[in-house]
Every structure is written in structure tokens, then in C-alpha cells.
Specification:
By secondary structure, the chain is of the alpha+beta class. Among the domains are: about 40 residues, no CATH class; about 100 residues, CO dehydrogenase flavoprotein, C-terminal domain (Enolase-like, domain 1), CATH 3.30.390.50. It contains 13 helices and twelve strands. It is globular. The site of flavin-adenine dinucleotide has 30 residues, from strand 2, helix 5, helix 6 and strand 8. GO terms for molecular function: FAD binding; oxidoreductase activity.
């Protein structure tokens, strides 16, 4: 491991050149592999952080653990798909350590990123991407570039994107800013080494969930094993149904892109439409019109199509009506 200085934060403040340590469940592994080499590490996992209501919105401290967030009564009641998404990730032991801030900023699980003998533009800019023509079963079908086809692995971030969460930060010059969760992580373009839009030393302090989320919510994760496996693909759906018409439709997809993929084309196809299986199929097709497979991951395109359709059937209760 490369030498580094370590300090424990006493209060939430940001400094250039610093890397923050949450639960360490991703960063420490990457430091051991020397893929990450921070010179100055500041532990923010013990900063005071809680989950509280403010004018109907929910504020979540960045140091709140995934376990605490998933179990919180307000989250379970009003933002159930966030609780489901969190509980589908990792293990209870990992969730006890992993923090809200760290979960957003965890790095890809692309095996070429972890294998330092292989070319990876994310790990070493300009070195190439062995995943393009390699084993790419887990890789992106939307928003990828010729430089990187890695996907973001978080379940939590997918639910946060669909819930229109906002991430509040402090920059190194002491300014506060608010970033929509859908914009926190970025597509690879020609700079896949940059996972997110935060500046050097910018600290996540809080996440805000807006009041009055849609009443019907669902998070579904497709994976190779029933537990302790990253998503092959996943979906978070939230919507309301009034007089059989869909409203406030929000959909995000996981395991398909370098960031949680807000399915805005599908949302537009569904908003204001009657609950109807053919509309679900049109929405899925609209979202996937630009999807591109790289060989091993071609199967994700029909899989995501089916996932969108079945998730919509279940969240609108159409399946129950049909089977009644
Ligand atoms: C075996 C295993 C299985 C897993 N399975 C899943 C899974 O199925 N689904 C899933 O979603 N995840 C899974 N994970 C990943 C796990 O959820 C993440 O490792 C965890 O959420 C990261 O949180 P952390 O607090 O430990 O982050 P850390 O490892 O401490 O940090 C991660 C990154 O976030 C930065 N950071 C941390 N806090 C802040 C802050 N407040 N402000 C700015 N930057 C910050 C760090 O500098 C670092 O770059 C798995 C992990 C393991 C080891």
C-alpha cells in the first residue's frame, strides 16, 4: 500500500487534495490493490449524521449507514423502493459499514479495472479498454463510449435517481451546492477516469429526498445469485395511478450504464397514459432504441425490455387484474 496520512474529521469541512473515507468497503480494497493511492485520507464515517424530516422532505446525513437507512421507519413507509434497493446490496455486515456518501461514489466492478495487468482507461487514462472486445457480460448497453463500457454498481443510487434525490455538498472553497442525484455520476465520454461531477476535495454532507414521492414503488434486481451479487441489471419505478392513468412516472435502470440511467424516454411514453400492457412495451422500446451490445452483454437488451414491462405490470397491479 502506498503511504498516506490519516485523520478523523471533527466537523464537516472540505479541503483540496483530500480523499474521504466512509465505511471503507470499496476504497480500502482499491488502496490495497494500489488502484487508488490517496495521499491524505480523512475519515468522515463518524461525523454526526441522522435521518430527519424537514417540511415533508427527508434529510439523510452522508455518514448514515446503508443498514440504518434501509431500516428507518420513514424510509420503509414512504420510500420503500430505496429500502428494498439497499437491502438487495452486499451483505448485512457490509451494509453496517457502508455509508450513504460512499455508496454513491463506489467505483465500478469491471474486472479489467481491478486487474492491473489489463488495459483500462478508467484506471490508467489512455491505456485502452480491454473490456470492449473482452469478457463484457456485465457491461454497459446505454451511454457507453469507445473509451469505457463499465457500469456503476450501486443499487442505492438507482433508487435515489428515480426518487429525484438531491445530493448536498461542500466544496473545497467552502461553498455549498446541491446536485440532483441523477447528475452526480457521469457518462464516460473521453474521460472515464472521472466517475462523478464533484470537484477535488468536495465532500458529500447530506442527501435530500423530496416530499410526497409517488405512492407505488418497486425496485427489482436481476442477478446471478439470490443474494450477495451485484446487479446484472436492475430497475427502480415510482408512479401514481389515478382513474387508471399513470402519473408522476419515474424510472431508473441499473447495470446498464456508467451511471444510474434515468429512463426519461420511457417516462414520457407512460406519463398520462392508461395502464396498458402495450404502452409498457412501447415505453421499453423507446428507452432501448439506442441500446448497443458488445457481444457477451447483448442479452441485456431483451432482458431490460422484459424487466421494464414486468416491473410496470407489477407496480400498476396489471398482472393481478389479468390473473383475477
Ligand atoms: C463483497 C461486496 C459486495 C457488494 N455488493 C454490492 C451490491 O450488491 N450492491 C451495491 O450497491 N453495492 C455492493 N457493494 C458495494 C458497497 O455497497 C460499497 O462498497 C459501499 O456502499 C461503499 O460505501 P463506503 O462508505 O464503504 O465507501 P468507501 O469505500 O469509504 O468510499 C467509496 C468512495 O466514496 C468516497 N466518499 C466516501 N464518503 C464520501 C463523502 N461523504 N463525500 C465525498 N466522497 C466520499 C471515497 O473517497 C471513495 O472514493 C459490495 C461491496 C462488497 C465488498
Amino acid at each position: 500500500m502506498t503511504p498516506f496520512s490519516f485523520e478523523r474529521a471533527e466537523k464537516a469541512s472540505a479541503s483540496a487534495g483530500v480523499r474521504y473515507l466512509g465505511g471503507g468497503t470499496n476504497l480500502i480494497d482499491l488502496m490495497k490493490l494500489e488502484i487508488e493511492r490517496p495521499e491524505r485520507l480523512v475519515d468522515v464515517s463518524r461525523l454526526p449524521g441522522d435521518i430527519r424530516e424537514s417540511d415533508g422532505a427527508i434529510l439523510i446525513g452522508a455518514s448514515v449507514t446503508n443498514a440504518a437507512l434501509s431500516a428507518d421507519p420513514l424510509i420503509r413507509e414512504r420510500y420503500a423502493m430505496l429500502s428494498t434497493a439497499l437491502l438487495s446490496g452486499a451483505t448485512q455486515q457490509l451494509r453496517n459499514k457502508a455509508t450513504t456518501g460512499g455508496n454513491f461514489l463506489q467505483r465500478t466492478r469491471c474486472h479489467y479495472f481491478y486487474d492491473t495487468a489489463r488495459a483500462c482507461n478508467k484506471r490508467e487514462p489512455g491505456s485502452g479498454c480491454d473490456a470492449l472486445d473482452g469478457h463484457n457480460r456485465f457491461h454497459a448497453i446505454l451511454g457507453a463510449s469507445e473509451h469505457c463500457i463499465a457500469v456503476h454498481p450501486s443499487d442505492m443510487a438507482v433508487a435515489m435517481a428515480a426518487l429525484d434525490a438531491e445530493v448536498r455538498t461542500i466544496t473545497a472553497d467552502g461553498e455549498g451546492r446541491t446536485i440532483p442525484a441523477t447528475d452526480l455520476l457521469r457518462l464516460p465520454g473521453d474521460a472515464p477516469e472521472r466517475d462523478h461531477v464533484l470537484d477535488d476535495g468536495e465532500l458529500i454532507v447530506e442527501v435530500r429526498l423530496p416530499a410526497n414521492p409517488p405512492a407505488r414503488q418497486l425496485y427489482r434486481k436481476v442477478r446471478d445469485r439470490a443474494s450477495y451479487a451485484f446487479a446484472v441489471v436492475s430497475i427502480a419505478v415510482a408512479l401514481d395511478v389515478e382513474d387508471n392513468v399513470m402519473k408522476n412516472v419515474r424510472i431508473a435502470l441499473g447495470g446498464v450504464a456508467h451511471k444510474p440511467w434515468r429512463a426519461d424516454k420511457a417516462e414520457r411514453a407512460l406519463e398520462g397514459a392508461f395502464v396498458d400492457a402495450s404502452v409498457f412495451a412501447q415505453a421499453a422500446d423507446a428507452e432501448l432504441q439506442d441500446a448497443v451490445g458488445r457481444g457477451d452483454n447483448d442479452f441485456k437488451i431483451p432482458l431490460v425490455r422484459r424487466l421494464i414491462i414486468t416491473a410496470l405490470r407489477d407496480v400498476t397491479d396489471l398482472s393481478k387484474e389479468h390473473s383475477a
